[in-house]
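Below: protein 1.
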Amino acid sequence: MAVAAASARMSRRQILVTVAVSAAVWLLFSSTWPMLPVRLLVTLVHEAGHAVTIQLLGGDVSFVIVNEHGGGLTSGRLRTPDSATARVLVSSAGYLGTAVVGALLLEGATRLRRGRVAAIVLAVLVAAIGFAWVPWRVEPDAFSAAATGSSSGDGRFTVLVCAVAVLLLVGLAAQPMVRLRTGMIAALATTFCLASVDDLRRVLDLSARGGHSDAANAASATSLSSWMWAAIWLVLGGAACAVGVWAALSKDDQQESPATPLEVG
């Protein structure tokens, strides 16, 4: 039984290859249409990071939506809108929150029932976002609509995204192929960790066109530039992924060692 369980787990090499390939695919092709379903899920978690932080700071969240272009929008009001600290925390929470979720998923892909718990927890998280903050119809203001590509129909679209994501994640948790489940969770976790790269790309593009981004929001409240904030989020996202990989590999060592005497004897 121990040998069978060990063979079903992802090995150290498989974990590293999965993370490396997932990172390369996301960095190279995240803007292409085949990656749109993953981008929508990443954006949903990103926007939820803003919403959670607004509420933790005592503010009110009006809605969280994503759109068919892969963008997203969180509308809310801070209790202290002039507070630079609050604005930085809310601006940073999208990318840092997504990176933290990614690190936890990556570690949980191999630790808790071989990824099953991680898939179910993510499904519950997506369902909670949908119930708490996604309305059937929204009316974004003109500036937000132009900056994010959002429209009045994005509430219904986001409800559909949440429903499909929950069904797919529950299906992934229920299916019996352990390596498929852990591999997909590890790949998804890696994209979450590296989502901050997207803002760095957007800053490079939007800064040239005078556009707006989370990094620009953070920059407006501090002496750091939007480029600096994007770089900070990129480093922290990469660090979160590294911690998740380390935890997954460390657990793999602990699980493999007891099986060695059984294989030798």
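Below: protein 2.
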Amino acid sequence: MTNSASEPTALPGVLIGHDTAGRRPTGVTVVLLPEGTTAGVDVRGAAPGTRETDLLDPVNTVQEVHAIALCGGSAFGLDAAGGVVRWLEGQGRGIEVGSVRVPLVPAAVIFDLGVGDSMIRPDADSGVRACAAAVPVVQAVEGNVGAGAGASVGKLLGPDRAMRGGVGIATLHAQGLTMSAVVVVNAVGDVVDPDTGSLLAGARVSPDSLELAGAVDEVLAGRFGDGPQAATNTTIGVVITDARLTKTQASRLAQVAHDGLARTIRPVHTPMDGDTLFAAATGTADPEVQDALAPERLAVLLSVMAAEVTAQAVVRAIRAAQGLRLEDLWLPAWQDTHPG
């Protein structure tokens, strides 16, 4: 379930769906968006895996998107976005191009191929199932589902010392506007509580220990261990607001949402991560609410909300995750360090 500064408030027309593979931890999380939604994107990590991000550039023609897909399976998992396109076409969704409707579905992936059988990846059918399972934001499940099924964090000192990541969802309501964040946390770095600075999950002192090492301090001291390979991590997500925004404004919102990652993930945006955040604006808020705010005040309000709700979603992902034991890998979770 989501949380907020007051009561959870639905985003009309926004639905979240998960499809989780049964044979290994991986999957797809889809955010379905109402007609007329504008979007932007900001890629901060150096090893991204994405689809259709160029169309979100404010200088390009298309002004709306229909869904955003967050996928496991590394580059292979981008196939799932094709299934989302197929499902949307079946619903009559998409921009009109002559006699055809073309759904637009930007997507990003995490690397989870090291968790279980790497030959099992999300595909187009996974995308279809995620769409069919979509529910309102306040009903969506968190933790090790969908794209968060195979997520892990704290790999800076080696994958055998990592912990479980996952997908987190948070909602914030302020000044008559609502914003939600859906974040798949699969970072090379540790995750901290932004309010206290305490470590929640991350690199452990040894493969058989629950004690956290503190990856940043270890690296500064020159103790890297058997660190991760490039492109084997990545935190991805989307912030959705009911405000009315242009593509330029949505792109700016995606930029500031990364501040929420910086508050909760240490280190973040590394050469081994492909951190990518989308921002979507549905324009479904009461026009009088938005118009009552001066443009600069609206921009500040949304910037604050984006960073806050993203940070909340990261923390919620870690607290909802559950430990995993495979034959050759143990990924304990925050819940294992806080029993009861």
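The chain has one domain: 15-337.
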